Amino acid sequence: MKIGVITFPGSNCDADARYAATVSGHQAVQVWHKDEAIPSDAEVIILPGGFSYGDYLRTGAIARFSPIMKDVKRFASEGGLVIGICNGFQILCESGLLPGALIRNENLQFVCRDVLLRVENTNTPFTSACHGLMRIPIAHGEGRYIAPPEVLERLEAQHQVVFRYVNELGEATKDSNPNGSINNIAGIINEAGNVIGMMPHPERAIEPVLGSSDGMVVFESLTMHVQRAIESTT
Amino acid sequence: MKIYSEIDVDVSTAHELGLTREEYDRICEILGRTPSYTELGIFGVMWSEHCSYKNSILLLKTLPRTGKRMLVAAGEENAGVIDVGDGFGIVFKIESHNHPSAVEPFQGAATGVGGILRDIFTMGARPIAALNSLRFGELDSDHTKYLFKGIVHGIGNYGNCFGVPTVAGEVYFDRCYTDNPLVNAMAVGVVRTDRMASATAEGVGNPVYIMGSSTGKDGIHGASLLASREFSAESENMRPTVQVGDPFAEKLLLEATLELIASGVVVGIQDMGAAGISCSTSEMSAKGHVGMEVNLDKVPLREDDMSAYEIMLSESQERMLVVIKNGYEAQAKEICEMWEVPLTEIGVVTADGFITIRKSGRLVAHIPAESLVLGGGAPVYERERSKPSYLQLTQRKVDVGPKLQQDECTGVLLKLLSSATIASKRWVYEQYDSQVGTNSIIRSDGDAAVIRIKEIPNRAIAVSTDCNSRYAYLDPYMGGAIAVAEAARNCACVGAEPVAITNCLNFGNPYDPEVYWQFAEAVRGIGDMCRVLNTPVTGGNVSFHNESQQHAIFPTPTIGMLGLIEDIDRTVGNSFTNEGEVVVLLGWQRAELGGSEYLKIVKGRITGTAPFIDPDEEARLQRSVLRLVRDGVVTCAHDCAEGGLLVALAEMTFLHGIGITAAIPFAHNAANLFGEAQSRVLVSVPQSSLAALKAVSMEESVPMVELGRTGGDVFAIKDLVGIPVSDLKNMYDTAIPDIMSVSLV
């Protein structure tokens, strides 16, 4: 399938996302933030990691005003699949496509390391191929997820929490939480189930030579999603 | 010719700008008149130690600076370039930012990273890795913790935002760096050799542009007064001379620069680091044997009331000077507009060889470009040297230390593993994004970092930095030689052939004959080892005047090494990966304790002489290790370094929690167990490959000793240590976080 990866000024994981999409058998296309429209044949849009606008003001706060974001909202409202990774997740929260916010890590330090994720909901287009724990890198200074109690309750009740930081036994403990996120939340999905945001970087874990290829399942899930869609229409 | 001067200058003005009477006289002679204030300022920075290498260049020229893989001559461009085949080159360089980091740790370190990254991409290369070599005082003062925290934060902040993975480095702690920490930043990039840009101005009539950020009052006198003098009580007041970094601006500058170069519109380009517009205009002109006319009224400024002097000396970051081909200005503009990078025409290339500067309709400077630069008219000195008197005190014979029993040996091992210099640097490297770019194959889990080159299938490079300055203090010649050897050994341990170095030479005041002797000896040691290992010097940086409170730092000749890997599947890390393998020590076991971490931590002394090293033995060892890794004989390889044999063995158990049962077949004195004899590498090998290992060891005449076997979860060394790996690892992991979590405001 065709995956559009948006490049904001300051995005620095855009090339990695395109590379991962290509390695996993998809077609990747760069979308410039000043473009007014997403390519008509793109089936998935990735908002990549990085420091859009230098993280100035607040992470993601300026990128949400980029011209392309208007069309991303339109695309999402029509059911298009959108993935926000790291800074992309922050932009999705800032633009209201996902609830809650990402603030500075609890220890106030940037953190880059591999984390273990438990997939809480495999009934999404992004996680249907997932099984077992995933080892995926994180690299962020502002990845501590927070949300008001009523929002959090709804997220949990509706299985919108997709990824949680866990230890090797699969338990969401304080020690396995790298940034102080509430309920060890690493990634969430919107109510409609087509917009996902995650702090870990699946595009960095796509080949054994990089230490893990667990991130591949996200891209494989997309392939399965398309196949199912084709099967259901035929 | 009427030259406007803001104030009248004389020799006392020259003194204030860091120039000597002789240098002032020479300037008057070159110009045939008294210089204007702006001109004197330009000479002041260009002839500063930092820009002119006036006290080091003669010795640097004795280093081996040629090699068949070198694509540009050493020191000719902003960084060295090594041919890696298939039409690609690796661009790399290391540079210091010590003085700025001492007075403003966050910005000082951040702009050090920014500066070295510009050196890489100004050549048309995309940065693929960053490294850093840091030195601090002991972590027992709040000030040192403040510097440590701020510098690590600054490095991380800049590199992370810019989008380059910080993949390796080293951190040492010694009292001598208390007021003068060292921040040596290295960057590595990949370039298509047919798209390399040069820092040369050519073509009379071609327009000259300034690209990137606007020019402000930050960093004025950074090179001349801050970097080229010792610290004093007033240094704190020099904080305004430290530049302020904007990694976001640099990221945009990177993309715009690479696109400009790729589009073919660039004649020449140079980044603005030390001495800003003064340096870039004069160096680019001198190199192309042309001149430049610049109108300072066109330079975008951050504040209106800047004088010509201030504009010429500003070290505002994220700026480039570019000469564009006549007729291609519109194309250049279009590229920069897309990336929202300002591009402003400020002058033109001329034939007369002069830097001609105008402001407000007045001529403010008119100087032959050649007279300003290294290799041209900049002064060159050979300073007086004398063997330091402290050596009489330190070079006492050190015996092999006591024979250690189990309890004592375990105690020493735990103490060493939790000493800040040896302990895990995870607290540091987890603050750096080490993976962006998805090329980082080996990071903290190997003796050198391994970065793949996506452009060339299966190919990778290894990079490392190294310098044990304690050895250099005790014997600068050996210290220089060992720094090269160890950096190369680190590359060999991951399966990379060491091919070239960049160096960052950090010393005290060169006008002190004892310091100059250290410098000369270290350079001699580097040169000798580089010749034997066939790793030429591609460039680098000299940082003098690293002194405070009347004492110089330990001489610290940091080496950045580049190694090549032909097959990405034939690399190994430095940790045991399988149970039941044979652990072998390759190399020469010499009972030495001089300059060891053991002596420092256990005895509180920095004495003796540096470990012995024989370049020929070292070359044979490295060749053996390289063969063993490349032929798939060994599954991991680790250099014996600080802390010696037992510390190295312990380090190999940590990553996978695989223990070892071994015996040390040498006398159990401190020197054999914790001494830092050179030319030793530990490897782990499956029983089935042991014969292949023996064959290589015989062929290369490198001694080998079987120590024991991997397995279990205990670090069990017969009669010496028997303790769970997890206990050792806990000490190793928590030492620095524990120190940093206490009493830091």
Task: Characterise the protein shown here.
The complex is a heterodimer of chains A (234) and B (745). By secondary structure, chain A is α/β, with parallel strands linked by helices. Chain A is 24% helix and 25% strand. A nine-stranded mixed β-sheet of chain A has the order 2-1-3-4-11-10-9-6-7, sandwiched between helices. A two-stranded antiparallel ribbon of chain A has the order 5-8. The model of chain A has no long low-confidence stretch (mean pLDDT 96). Chain B is of the alpha+beta class and 745 residues long. Chain B folds into three domains: 1-64 and 199-380, Alpha-Beta Complex (Phosphoribosyl-aminoimidazole Synthetase, Chain A, domain 2), CATH 3.90.650.10; 66-196 and 437-570, PurM-like, N-terminal domain (60s Ribosomal Protein L30, Chain: A, 2-Layer Sandwich), CATH 3.30.1330.10; 388-423 and 572-745, Phosphoribosyl-aminoimidazole Synthetase, Chain A, domain 2, CATH 3.90.650.10. In chain B, α7 runs parallel beside α8 (142-162) and α7 (105-121) runs parallel beside α10. The chains are: A alpha/beta (234), B alpha+beta (745). At the A-B interface, α1 and β6 of A face α8 and α10 of B.
Could you list some keywords that capture this structure?
heterodimer; A: 234 residues; alpha/beta; Rossmann fold; 9-stranded mixed sheet; two-stranded antiparallel sheet; 11 strands; B: 745 residues; alpha+beta; Phosphoribosyl-aminoimidazole Synthetase, Chain A, domain 2; 60s Ribosomal Protein L30, Chain: A; 3 domains; 7-stranded mixed sheet; 36% helix
